[in-house]
From TrEMBL:
Family recorded in the similarity comment: Belongs to the metallo-dependent hydrolases superfamily.
SUPFAM superfamilies: Metallo-dependent hydrolases
Keyword Transport annotated: no
Keyword ATP-binding attributed: no
InterPro entries assigned to the protein according to its UniProt record, in alphabetical order: Metal_Hydrolase, TatD-like, UCP005295
Keywords assigned by UniProt, alphabetized: Hydrolase, Metal-binding
Protein name listed in UniProt: TatD family hydrolase
Molecular functions (GO terms): hydrolase activity
Amino acid sequence: MRIFDPHVHMTSRTTDDYERMYAAGVRAVVEPAFWLGQPRTNVGSFIDYFDALLGWEPYRAAQYGIRHHCTLALNPKEANDPRCAGVLDELPRYLLKDSVVAVGEVGYDSMTPEEDRVFEAQLALAEEHGLPVLVHTPHRDKAAGTRRTLDVVKGLDPGTVLVDHLNELTVGMVHEAGCWMGFSIYPDTKMDPERMVAILKEYGTERMIVNSAADWGRSDVLKTREVGEAMLAAGFTDDDVDQVLWRNPVAFYGQSGRLSLDDVESGGDYEGNTILRGTR
């Protein structure tokens, strides 16, 4: 089983996680820029963070046989902080970098007027740079936030928009809009493998993106693997699993023209918690 985790915050994870991911079949990841938990107080802290996503983190991933790309943006939560407004002026030079495969995470946190302004400004940057867009839907008032999101992006080609953190209440409207549908699989919150399988049975595997969204909170980098196993147990084929866990994220991020996976190994058999040595 080969796995592409299209949304995982590896900056928050240890090298043990990279080893576990490789053993589970993960061969590629996309790391979206996000809120680090502690409010950033100046633009320079974003610059250092972006530089790490472009330099240090791809190097660290490569030591464990995993290809690393990223998406960059001023995230919705910090869009409300005037100290961070200057990030929008810095983004254009970063969006030219080879390993940046989308603009994101953009979207809503509290659905404020400032979030509207920053969201629309970054959609314009995505169009200017020919990049797809990764959209974060809010944790609160998710249905309302998703509807508002779809109103904002309706001028874009829906095939270039991935609306993430969906659930049973929001998937239908995004499916109807023609955008890509993203689902974060968590131990306690968001979605779980069984609920994800139920959605795949109802809506099919086209335009479906499954991620772990693992970060500094309680999360699990192997939740993508669990979805694949749950799909097989529910009667989906190996090809169905490959579409959801590999070909779909490749198709979405491949629109950037920057996805580099030519020499990435295929996923091997899962060996539980056994760490595969000698792969560096």
